[in-house]
Amino acid sequence: MVDKIAYPVQLIQPDGLRVFRPDYTSLVRDIRPDQLRDLYEDLVVARRMDVEAVALQRQGELGLWAPLLGQEAAQVGSARALRPDDYAFISYREHAVAYCRGVDPGVMTRMWRGCAHSAWDPSSVNVTNPAIVVGSQGLHATGYAMGAHLDGAEIATIAYFGDGATSQGDLAEALGFSMSFNAPVVFFCQNNQFAISEPVHLQSPVPIAQRAAGYGMPALRVDGNDVLAVLAVTRQATQRAREGSGPTFIEAITYRMGPHTTSDDPTRYRAAAETEIWKARDPIDRMRRLLDREGLLGEEFLARVQATADAVAARLRSGTVEAPDPAPLDLFDHVYSTDHPLIDEEREQYAAYLAGFAGIEEALS
Amino acid sequence: MAQEFRLPDLGEGLTEAELVSWAVEVGQSIELNQVIGEVETAKALVELPSPYPGVVEELLVVPGATVPVGTPIIRIATDAATGEPPARTPVLVGYGPEAAAESKRARRRPATAPETAYPDGRRPDASPAARLAARERGIDLAVVAGTGPSGAVTRNDVESHTGSAEPSVPSERSDDSETVQRETRTPIRGVRKQTAAAMVRSAFTAPHVTEFVTVDVTRSVELLGRLRDLPEFEGLSVTPLSLVAKAMIVALRANPSLNASWDEENQEIVTKHYVNLGIAAATPRGLMVPNIKEAQSLSLLELCRAITELTATARSGRADPVQLTGGTVSITNVGVFGVDAGTPILNPGEAAILCLGSVDKRPWVHEDELAVRWVTTLSVSFDHRVVDGEQGSRFLSSVAAMLHDPASLLAHL
Fold it and tell me: Which keywords accompany this UniProt record (chain B) (predicted)?
């Protein structure tokens, strides 16, 4: 699978026509009409959720949000290739991965609202919480995978990161360790063309996937806006991991159609003409064209998808605006898994500090 | 129940933002997440989605105003009423909450005639904008022929009605309203406000000097005529402005002090080794000076194309902030209005601005005889703190020489 990494794997063209690739098509042979429709629904729901969260940030309900617009297929395709006992280590933009892993949309925004350290229990859904640290996901996934390997568990871990993260030392170490220890990791790079404002060609003069060659790691490129192709290559890579064949590097070529985060203005560093090119490769449009060509698109189906998406968005909104503010002393919970004398001391000090305000409030009222 | 939407912190740790425009008006029904306006922060221009569905009750901030985070900017009447009087709750699409809106207007315009009672007991269908326009003009909606859906009266209907009806009812207007109409009071905001501030700042910080030169540009006019026939230039506006721009960029190489700025804070003169060429354009939103980035590296053809695109986007009101900032030197073309010459005010932060007058056939001494030649007047204003008379004069005469004989431009291409 290493030889022609310059040619990304594609199973659906932007116009919705299938591509003849027996080697990869065989990996998604079980994706029948119903499963195709489910994938389409996931894509639409992911985008709808994202739109709602951006609106919530603009309305002052979230401190920040990293929109995934344009990257739905890369996330849904890879997440749907995972089994329940596989483990995903995500960065800050993988809202669709979290959704596909079964995270309740009602809690998805908690970290972004600043009302919880951790939005969900990672081990209940085998997906970590959003992490702003760039590149750490590779190390965490490698460590977890090595542990699982030692335990004899036949699972895969997957590390999500972007093109910019491949320039980080953390990721270099992760690639090296995972190869040395034959760790069952999939390094899933969403090359969305920008490390915030830095275009990818300034990060690497060669395709990002080629960087894996230095570690002796098999790598391939996939059309990241083609949900079926992403599903196929991720299935192949996770299968290699589970069989004990070691790590794989996947570069999913996609495009971040929105800003880096809600604090960013992409018009300052990229031209509208470029965005137009990628609009024609929109992952959702492509899937809809495929369904249409294959006669799987009915009004009833579209209405059902829209209703599901709206319901998920409504759940995300109500979960956000109704999220309770944490009690100040909750700050000390979950720092250690067991009681810790230093934490206990700090908790008491802070409680005493807070108690000092009680008298003031009474005096003022 | 009325909800106020307070300006949120749209970046991380921003303290204020400028309201650029409203996308909704008072009385309009809006949905959850419908875009209500645009806000510009120090980081980005962003659209604001409404956090409430309902009817816009009041816009609390005028466009162009910069307000601190936390300021209420819009009030929206929502259906989520608990103790509201029932009369206001059934809000139909397209109708404002009448009681609130009218009491407010009544305070502002006590002279406005009350609305007539309609024979069939109902008011004619009309959009809120049309109602406002009718009220402002004192027109009874019942006499306006509606062309909207199901015969609803639109704002256009009201406006065209005003036009036709005014001459027929001149004496009905009181003296009072006539005096009102002799003056129009326009709030200073948006582009006008920014232009004014920029001009005042420029005029009273940079000591301006303006020089003039009148030059025979017949050869340039002939050259432009030939360029227009070339297939490469098809569809582009090949005008004296493009040639002047090229000549100016070339002349700046020998006179870099005109492509500079005065840094008061650091007590330094910043000489730029690139040219971001500003072109003053009259647009529907007012005066804009979008600039062509890195103009020093553009060929004449690329320059023509850039000017054509730049003025088109500026006129359509779509110039983005990148195009409007970072200019290093500017051109203003008053010649298009048939004017001989001007003494332009510097675009703030720049050291020079060239003004192109109209290019006309005039009597001119050519080869010791009186001849009819294409002649124009160029002027340049410069910041005398940065540029001395010598450099300013050399620059202007150099531009003039290149326009007099455009063949000399070839030496620099």
Answer: Acyltransferase, Lipoyl, Transferase
> pLDDT tens for residues A31-78?
999 999 999 999 999 999 999 999 999 999 999 999 999 999 999 999
Do B88 and B101 contact (CB within 8 A), yes or no? no
CB-nearest to B12 from A60, A61, A64 is: A64
Position B87 scores a pLDDT of: 35
- This model's pTM is above 0.80: no
Residue B334 falls inside a structural domain = yes
CB-nearest partner of A58 from B6, B8, B45? B8
Q: How confident is the model at residue B163 (pLDDT cuts 50, 70, 90)?
A: low
Provide the 8-state DSSP code for B271.
E
Q: What is the ipTM of this complex?
A: 0.79
Of the candidates B12, B49, B320, the beta carbon closest to that of A59 is on B49
Residue A234 has pLDDT above 90, yes or no: yes
CB contact under 8 A, A263 and B11: yes
pLDDT tens track for A292-341: 999 999 999 999 999 999 999 999 999 999 998 888 898 888 888 889 99
- Beta carbons of A252 and A230 less than 8 angstroms apart: yes
- Residues of chain B with Cβ-Cβ distance to A57 below 8 Å are 8, 10
- Structural domains of chain B, count: 2
> Which of A226-240, A262-276, B358-372 has the lowest average pLDDT?
A262-276
The domain boundary residue, chosen from B77, B110, B139? B77
The verdict on residue B177 lying in a domain is: no
B45 and A58 within 8 Å at the Cβ level: the answer is no
Please spell the DSSP secondary structure of A291-302, one letter per residue.
Answer: HHHTT---HHHH
Q: Could you tell me if residue B60 is inside a domain?
A: yes
Please provide residue B163's backbone torsions phi and psi, each rounded to the nearest 5 degrees. -55, -45
CATH code, domain carrying B44: 2.40.50.100
Which residues form the domain of B22? 2-77
| Residue B153, strand partner residues | B126
User: How close is the nearest chain B Cα to the Cα of A261, in Å?
Assistant: 9
Per the prediction, chain B carries an average pLDDT of 81
CB contact under 8 A, A263 and B10: yes
C-alpha span between B60 and B287 (Å, rounded)? 27
Closest C-alpha among B149, B146, B2, B6 to residue B80: B2
Winning range, highest mean pLDDT, from A40-44, A114-118, B38-42, B86-90: A40-44
pLDDT at B93 exceeding the cut of 50: no
Q: What is the pLDDT of residue A265?
A: 87
A205-214 contacts at long range (C-beta below 8 A, 24 or more positions apart)? A207/A5, A207/A6, A207/A251, A208/A163, A208/A166, A208/A251, A209/A5, A209/A249, A209/A250, A209/A251, A210/A5, A211/A166, A211/A175, A211/A249, A212/A175, A212/A187, A212/A249, A213/A2
CATH at residue B200: 3.30.559.10
The residue count for chain A: 365
Q: Is the dihedral of CA A253, A254, A256, A257 positive or negative?
A: positive
Residue A364: what pLDDT?
67
Interface list for chain B against chain A, based on CB atoms closer than 8 Å: 5-12, 33, 43-51, 320-322
Chain A residues with CB-CB distance to B under 8 A? 51-52, 55, 57-61, 63-64, 259, 262-265, 267-268
Active site residues of A: 256, 260, 269
Q: Which residues of B are catalytic?
A: 384
Q: Of the residues B50, B77, B104, which one is the last residue of a structural domain?
A: B77
Centre a 10 Å sphere on the Cβ of residue A314 and count the other Cβ atoms it contains.
15
B68 with B200, same domain?
no
B10/A59 touch (CB, cutoff 8 Å), yes or no: no
Residue B134 falls within a domain, yes or no?
A: no
Q: Which residues contact A297 (CB under 8 A, 6 or more apart)?
A: A288, A291
pLDDT, one tens digit per residue, over B246-297 is 999 999 999 999 999 999 889 999 999 999 999 988 877 778 888 999 999 9
